[in-house]
Amino acid sequence: MVLEIAVASGKGGVGKSTVSSTLALYLHRRGYHTIAVDADADAPNLHLIYGLTSWEHEEEYIEAWVAEINYDKCTNCGVCAEVCPYEAVRLIGDKYVINKVVCEGCLTCTLACPEKAIRRHRVASGKIRWGKTSYGFPLVSARLYVGRPNTGKLVTEVKNKAKDWSKEDTIIIVDSAAGIGCQVISSLAGANAAILVAEPTPASFSDLKRVHMIAKQFVLPSGLVINKYDINPEYAEKIIEYAREEGIDFLGTIPYDDNVPKAMAQMKPLVELYPESPASKALLEIAHRVEERIIRNWKQWFSQYKPKKPVPYKPIILKPKTL
Amino acid sequence: MVKIAFASMNGGGLEDVIADRFGRAPVFTIVELDEQGNILNVKVIENPGASASSGAGVKSVQALVNEGVDIAVGPNFGPNAQVILEEMNIKAVRIPAGTKIADALEKVKKEVLGL
Question: Which of residues 70-99 of B touch A (CB under 8 A)?
């Protein structure tokens, strides 16, 4: 069975990429057919950790819409600028111009234009690219252009690319974006397990609980990693206690270690560059636990840590007032 | 009479399997049963959620509502899909991805409809 493990945290900068990059490298070295997926198209940087500087393949990701004025028909009436909800149309010199970065392609101006001079067409919102890391396993990644919205569909496309290459028992490691938006939902949807990374701070704990709600919604068994454990060990215990209450498998802690940013600066995985550093040792122990507990004993781990029943993460629905 | 929609991985139909996601499943296989559980009709519809940039769950449920579906079957349901299915009184049934639709149908007949 293909095992897709999503690494998520809610809060940014707590160590998702450090954990997922180590995990993919470790599993590859242990002989598993491994594919790394960078699902953070806003700020993709898994390739930087692996020192991947050129891609085997890059393709445009066409999704967004923008409006365009046909100046042969335009009479400069200014209706488009009036109706645009995003204030994307401005009078520049003697003509109205649509700012393509601000335009959301919502069709309002197209419908409002009395001369039918505005049409909307598709534009690339980013790139999907892939290549082989120098460590021998593939990485799929996406990169958005400035101002283009990140979407669940883009994450789905990137994950599908990895699935196309999957064999019987491939392990896919998905490095999710921060937050709990559409792209994070898409990172967790269809995954088999979630590894949640936190640091011992109230902000990280709060965001962890939010992303864990999504994992529960998808009935995903979850594991917990606490990074920079020693900056606040007492608070870390609170998060570990939460994991125990919620039935999350506590996979271990990583100490604060200066070598982490040093390795990033040199574009090499920490465990490659400083294998003897405290964080490296901790990361490898965690990767070993992931292999032993989750991958080798999948059925048992799944039934032990599967959320009991889905807890719907209820959005607030505003209903129209009945008269 | 009851209508059951199965999130389907490939082209849909009883020989296809349950997709790995609900909202972004490529197609839905809709099976219509009579009171005794006999199949009256099987049809396949495109899932508009599959290609939606966002709100995949919402769009897929809308398609099922348009079809008058009573039961929705998927591996799991996202936060939005779950809430709207509840609002629309469509029963959400979880059956693992990769299960053959024909087997999933038997399971629904037995465990949900009590046939």
Answer: 75-80, 82-83, 86-87, 94, 97
